[in-house]
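Q: Mind making up any chain with structure tokens?
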Amino acid sequence: MQSAPAPTAAANGNASAAKDGNGGCDLASLALDIRTWAKQLGFSQIGITDVDVIQAAERLDAWLASGHHGDMDYLQRHAALRADPARLVPGALRVITARMNYLPRDSAADWARREFDRIAIPNAAVVSIYARGRDYHRILRQRLQTLASRIELEVGRYGYRVATDSAPLLEVELARKAGLGWRGKHTLLLSQDAGSMFFLGEIVTDLPLPVDAPTSDHCGSCARCIDICPTRAITAPYQLDARRCISYLTIEHRGSIPIELRPLIGNRIYGCDDCQLVCPWNKFAQTAALPDFDVRNDLDSATLIELFAWDETEFDERHQGSAIRRIGHERWLRNIAVALGNAP
């Protein structure tokens, strides 16, 4: 996540303090209205929690101390902010957490099996499902801002900040506390209703909305995500060594991919979904409500050679409005070159 200064009325189009008495608004009714408005905007579920994430922040500190974050130095720089969402919004009391399903609308019932079938084709270019459509950062941010503005129409000017990977927040922990699911052994959020194929976004606010209750853990003794990981990046339940994770190596890592890990990457050129594909809860994964996450540029069927042939201009044009564009053409070619080296 990226760091940014505390919000101001000029920056966010909102005031830093809630209207006195919230304009006489019934906060319980407002919470229900927020859910209704969110559904109209394409969000799949809304939860509300307080801002206490101290225990999760302590676990993050221990993880950072282990060095498992690799090159993601920004996680270390803003650890203090993550421990206290009130630093992002003065007087913050609640976080409205939203999830949005991203499985493409035309996904087949056996979509997970088809993904594994494609991974087994050496010359197929495998891109993580979430990245095949438009950049979720833009989609969620715009709609969260619309939701925040709709709340303002109801209660008057109030303090808030919208975030989706754009502010230092412990979003999985906040979503867990808000009742959207539980943290799976692969460290992603899991929902009984929707598996893990969804994005998360937040509105940090000073409104004292009623909070939702967390859900219980439903992973039980299952360890499929741990067993399937090609690089053994999930070192223990709820423990991830990002330095070995294919998503980290193909997206976040800027240098050369370690030689010993290259064969394990196979034909995955941007991200990795294996731990999600094998998860039993993803039989309940829901397709997206929005067309924005439909597949673009044939990224569910392209070959390695086809994508390797794109020059920088074509790469930029094809990935306009895509999360993939941020890795740049050089790393795009690096990833495909590794995959081509693994092909027979």
